[in-house]
Amino acid sequence: MAHSLKILGRTSSINVRKVLWTCQELGIDYVREDWGIGFKPTQSAEFLALNPNAQVPVLIDDHGVLWESNTICRYLIGLYQRTDLLPAEPAPRARVEQWVDWQATELNRAWGDAFTALVRNNPDGLDATQIAAAVQVWNEKMGLLEQQLANTGAYVVGDEFTLADILIGLSVHRWQSTPMERPPYPAIAAYYQRLSGRQGFKTFALDGHN
């Protein structure tokens, strides 16, 4: 099943890399164009016609245009019928999707202030007390993941690698790479090593990304 596939977005974006890693797991080819900070502006009329939110990534294929990284990943997995990454049956699928949604709605929000202050060095950033509080919030959310991984002993949902591990794996790498104090979470450490054996993680996390 071959599809013409174009991805708009810079590889420095963690959300773009979610899609690229998904493509790698699916073994599909694509054309990527650099858009966003340092490249073509997402505020341009051309880009806004594709995504009115002015954010990357955007996917363009034979079926049209999609934005929102987690949705794009779900779409591609469904298109290529990879039920190992996202099950077809409602209950197993929901168990994967609850962690997919948790990454977007809980974990993604938790790192915002700390990552901006400690990595992006935002000149309008937080003071030391606020940064410490932001780091604590981030670590607390990672503590929930620690509990889950301690229960499964392997991947986020269970014994098998799924879409949840692509999205959360990149998030774990961001947490691991940010210069801050982190609790000694052994299950996350083991998970990080497990992911390090996958080519997609090597390319889109370990290879100089944050």
TrEMBL record:
<dbReference type="Pfam" id="PF13410">
    <property type="entry name" value="GST_C_2"/>
</dbReference>
<dbReference type="InterPro" id="IPR040079">
    <property type="entry name" value="Glutathione_S-Trfase"/>
</dbReference>
<dbReference type="InterPro" id="IPR010987">
    <property type="entry name" value="Glutathione-S-Trfase_C-like"/>
</dbReference>
<dbReference type="InterPro" id="IPR004045">
    <property type="entry name" value="Glutathione_S-Trfase_N"/>
</dbReference>
<dbReference type="Pfam" id="PF02798">
    <property type="entry name" value="GST_N"/>
</dbReference>
<keyword id="KW-0808">Transferase</keyword>
<protein>
    <submittedName>
        <fullName>Putative glutathione S-transferase like protein</fullName>
        <ecNumber>2.5.1.18</ecNumber>
    </submittedName>
</protein>
<comment type="similarity">
    <text>Belongs to the GST superfamily.</text>
</comment>
<dbReference type="InterPro" id="IPR036282">
    <property type="entry name" value="Glutathione-S-Trfase_C_sf"/>
</dbReference>
<dbReference type="GO" id="GO:0004364">
    <property type="term" value="F:glutathione transferase activity"/>
</dbReference>
<dbReference type="InterPro" id="IPR036249">
    <property type="entry name" value="Thioredoxin-like_sf"/>
</dbReference>
